[in-house]
Amino acid sequence: MKHLWAPWRMDYVTSARSDTCVLCRMAAETDAEDSHVLYRGQAAYVVLNRFPYNSGHLMVVPTRHLSDFTALGGEELAEIMDLAQGCIEALSQCLRPDGVNLGMNLGQAAGAGIDDHLHLHVIPRWAGDTNFISTVGETRVVPQSLDACAEQVGPVLRKIMATRTGASATECAEA
């Protein structure tokens, strides 16, 4: 029998569940490096998924705590979609995926791990990234650490969003 070790998963499996929303906590944190928040906009932010499907798995999260997609306002929707475009562009430049999955799991029955605070997944995909290890071994191999991915994608995303919003990259980093 062969073993594949994934010790980082133990934190997720055994961690105590908090009463406060993890996505609201990230929205309020000022230390973006610790939380892996790559960009903060006016109504939404971009964060690396702590338990990714693939390297570069980003989430675009509205700052406002809500689970009902239809309750998003026009400005929130526009910013979320603008951030999604910026994420795809940054991932394309940095990680060169062959494709991107973009989607939301709305509600627990739809597969939402955090069902009370909606978020949009932006997942880079490469030809051949799903193989026997995921299918048979029920294990996902993620070849890049969150810190390394944040260092690579974060500055590019902030530069892209600065161009899109007319702000400076420094203002985007401080937002």
Would you give an account of this structure?
Helices cover 39% and strands 14% of the residues. The chain is of the alpha+beta class. A hairpin with a 3-residue loop joins strand 1 and strand 2.
List the defining traits of the structure above.
14% strand, alpha+beta
Order of helices and strands: HHHEEEHEEHHH
- Identify low-pLDDT runs: 171-175
Rg over CA atoms, rounded to whole Å, is: 16 Å
Mind summarizing the main beta sheet? 5 strands, antiparallel
- The assigned structural class equals alpha+beta
User: Could you estimate the helical fraction of the residues in percent?
Assistant: 25-40%
Strand order of the largest sheet: 1-2-3-5-4
Give a count of the beta strands, DSSP E runs of length 2 or more.
Answer: 5
Residue-averaged pLDDT: 82
> Helix tally?
7
Shape: globular
Alpha-carbon distance between the termini? Answer: 50 Å
Tell me briefly what this model is:
The protein is built from 7 helices and 5 strands, in the order H-H-H-E-E-E-H-E-E-H-H-H. The protein has 175 residues and is of the alpha+beta class.
SSE topology sketch:
Blueprint: H1 9-14, H2 22-28, H3 32-35, E1 37-40, E2 44-48, E3 58-62, H4 74-94, E4 99-103, E5 120-125, H5 132-135, H6 146-165, H7 169-174
Antiparallel strand pairs: 1-2, 2-3, 3-5, 4-5
Helix pairs in contact: 4-6
